[in-house]
Structures are given as C-alpha cells and as structure tokens.
Write a structure and sequence with these properties.
Largest sheet: 7 strands, parallel
CATH topology of the largest domain: Rossmann fold
CATH superfamily of the largest domain: Peptidase S8/S53 domain
Number of helices: 8
Radius of gyration: 20 Å
Strand content: 15-25%
Mean pLDDT: 83
Helix content: 10-25%
Length: 440
Amino acid sequence: MNRGRNAIGWFTGLCLIFALLHPAALVAQDDEDDDDSSMGEDGDDEDGDEGDEDDEDDEDGFDAPRPDQAIVNLREGVNPDTFAQRNQAAVLRTIPGPNIVLLQLDPAVDDEIEVEGFLEDADVEWGEFNFTHQSPEGRPRYFFSSATGEPRIVDGPALPDGLEFTPAVVCATGAGIVVAVLDTGVDVSHPALVESVLPNGVNTVENTFDVRDIGNNFDDDADGQIDEMVGHGTHVSGTILQVAPQARILPVKVLNSDGVGDAFMVTSGIHYAVGQGADVINLSLGSTYDSLAIRNGVEFAASQGVVVVAAAGNGDRQQPADYPAATDLPISVAATDAGADKATYSNFHETVDISAPGNDVASTYPGGLYTTASGTSMATPLVAGSAALMLDRQPNANPDTITAMLKVASGPLSLSDSDLEGLLGAGELDIDASIACGGN
C-alpha cells in the first residue's frame, strides 16, 4: 500500500476559475510521497489574456475536507458494505471494477483517526479524503473571451490563429475514434454536435445519465457567480470536432454548472470512459493537489491503450503544478498565443509535453450558438483532436507512441522569456506534421 497525504478536491474546468483546496491530511498506506488533490482553473480578458488572474491566494483560500467523506480502494473480493459496516461507515458510491469506494464517515469519530484506521486495514490498498473547494478570493474569472465574462456570440466555429492545420488536405478525419470529454456535459441537441455525440454518456456528479450542459440556477461554489461554467464541455467538444470531424464524442459529466466536481467524480468518469471504449480522454480540468485516485485512474486508462490529454492550468505559474497534467502519463498541454509565445495565463512546468494555441477559439455553445473562449482548456482539445486523427491513421499506436509523435512533429516556440525554455514542452502543436499525410 501507499502512504502519503492525499487531499482530494473539487475540480474546475481549466478555463474558468482556478480553484484550490486545503492540503490537509490524508494518506494512503506504504508510500511516503505526498498525493494531495483538488481541482480548478481558467479565465481571460478580451484579448485572450488572463492578466492578474493568476492564483495568488493559494495559501488563503483553502477549504475543509468534504464533511465526513473518504475514498478507499479495497482489495479484490472485499465487499464494500461489509467493510463499511465493520468500520462504522456507509457506502455512498462505488466504482466496481477496481473496487474503489466513496464512504460516508461516522460523524461521531474524528475523521483523521477513522481514515488512519482504514489504512491499517489489510483489506485496503490505499485511501484518501474527498475534498471540496470554492473559488479563491479575487475577481471572478471567466473562460469566455470577453471583458464581462458573458459569452461573445459569433457566427460560427474557428480554430485559433497560429495553428498549423490544413483541413482541406488532411488524410484522416477521426472516423471510428471515440473521444471522451470529461467536463460540464454537452449540449447534445446542438446542430453541430447532434450527429457526433454518443448516447451512452454518464453524469458522475448526480450519478445519472443526464449529460446536458445546463445550469441549475444555484451558486454551488459560493463565488457570487451562478452557472458560470455552463458551456465549457460543449465548447471543448466542438473544438475536438473541428479537428477530427468524424470522431465521436462520449460525454462524461464530472463537473457541475459552476465547473466544480470532486476526485471521486473524475475518477469514476475515467473508469467509465475506458469501459465504454474511449480511445482518447480529454481532461480540461486540473488541481493543485495530486489525487491518488485520479493518478491511478489515468494509469489504468493508459494501460488499456487510451490516450489521456490534460490541461496544464491557467495560473501563469510553475508551482504549484496542476494535476493530473503534472504526472507522467497524460499528454500535458500548455497554451500559446498567436505568436507561438506562452499565453499570458498558461502554466509552465517540466512535465508539459506540448503547447497549443489557446486564445479566442470559436466553438459550440449551448442553444445552437457559438462563442469564443480562451485557456488551456481550449488548447487541450486541439491536442485530443489531433490524437484522434493520428489514431485514425495508425489504429494500433499506443499512448507513448502518440505522445512521441506529437513531440517530434511539433513546431518551434517563440519565447520572449528564455527562462521558459524546457517548461512548455517539445514545441507547439503542428497537426499537419503529426498526421504526416504526405509520408510516414
């Protein structure tokens, strides 16, 4: 077992609010590494720049753990209900295959003492708290490319300036490739999406099959903004289809309409996507804490041949890094501007694999509309769509091969700050070169 502190948090779409969680205690057996977790990110001004929206409140805006909840991975064959009863807990939800269980803890027992007890149980592989989050202090952050944060409605889709992509001569379309979008849901009735969205999606926020990208008219994260992330998943899905028009979108709703979820929801979504035959998983979400549940979920996906693409985050910082992008297996994506320089908001880190244009991407928005948005959330689906095209061309390519091909084919960056060398990946996404329609 692993032993480490694993604070799980709520997750936000990477072009919205960069939310943080408390690094409070937790703990998986037999590993001294820290695996704290929580998610959140994004936002830009009218020029696609985030300005002062970096996370300067990392130490001030922490939340407490979600009241009396923990995630444990039980050994194969262990009955969750029997385990919970033996430990004065109750089973809230499970992920049956890996036997991961979300537990409601006994409110009469100190949480840390109770979870420490779990980790000493021979039936437990690892465990960690389930954390909540709310937006940090500071002005609201938006992923829409407008100064007001309201959607800037445009006439139709458009990929960002600076992207090396010539659709007219592309020799692949993404046909037969399933891209799972783990996000706020999808507008399944949008004319540009209706023929591409698969009917077997899931909602891990509410534990239903309702994947609609709609608001609930409630300020879930108590940041003064209601339903500010409605449209995030719809926008991401449309961007993927601009690159890979014949790919199929598997909607997996892991974030609510404020762009908030938790580690169990995201982990459950990853396992569901793999079970439904996803070839690519897009994670336009992130956290400053490293959840063991999510890390293991990404590792499982990769072991099944699924390409996982994750946004590096919009804090304009190297540390704290955002997870799961800052782990080894996902293709970690930073954002560039139209001049191949780092987008002002983009995180940078030695684990970034590649950068892609992230400013003013025009894509689908609920209600049959289109809007522009900026952020690493917008750069990430460009890479996910590219992976779909590459798998169309080379169906047997594994995640490592796809990552290597994207890196080798990437174009040069034009960095105004030499200190960023090596922190924005191998270069800028070049879709034409990565597909190599004219050769190998």
